[in-house]
Amino acid sequence: MKGTMPKYLFHKSSPLNRGSILHSGLLPKIGSSYLCHWEGKKNLRPLIFFYDKNVMEYDTTYDDDVYKIDVQKLDKRRISRDPDKDMHGCYCYSLQIATRCFTLVHEGTGEEV
Description:
Elements (H helix, E strand, L loop, with lengths): L7 E6 L4 H7 L7 H6 L10 E4 L13 E6 L8 E3 L8 E4 L8 E5 L7
Antiparallel strand pairs: 1-3, 2-5, 3-6, 4-5
């Protein structure tokens, strides 16, 4: 991917996924938000989505967990811009992200905000 990559990117996920994420890392998936956003599109690839807090704070409408990802520990060749051209500062990744590459920085409640 061309351009300057921030040192950290962030990922939001439901607190219901916390145990699995802290045990197995972040896994590329076709989650419910991804499906809703690309409804009807065929051949979706499992991905992990994250965002640059310096550009925007991604709003899921819930108090989700927030993970801070150290980009230096990722294969930068597998990072690409979010396929939604309107999602400035958002990226996706096609490989598993090991637990040593991120920190849980906010424990959400899962409540609607």
